Amino acid sequence: MEQNGNVYITRERLVELENELRELKTFKRKQVADKIAEARAHGDISENAEYDAAREEQAHLEIKIAKLENILSRVIVIDEKSMPDDEVHILCTVSIRDLQTGRETDYTLVSPEESDFEQNKISIVSPIGKALLGKKINDIIEVNNQNGIRQYKILKITK
Q: Global pTM?
């Protein structure tokens, strides 16, 4: 969840991001440095495809490290237990019914960094995520998407 530049995530996700950053900065940087050194050892670097590939990999790695450091510098950890039980908030799972088709779907609301549509984890900044936040069971929400305006009824909220 990004508001005012803050990134709201769970304690578990924070640990994952910190571990990923540590892995990239220690082991992955060393691997890439070794590849560069090995490619240099092959002679003229001006026409060395291995060297160019290793340098490009290094550039991508440094961009990924910078992005993770940026996210971690803006993190606010969310405690699920402090969230209300009767309204939709980040980290809860919401069962909704499309009032046009009758189709029921469960979504878990997460931060943009954790969203995964295939796992029904939707970002709280997505159109449906924004519409759901703060709502309660039996509320009707309207979502404007590429197919027009859709209405959904909130059936269930679980932590």
A: 0.66
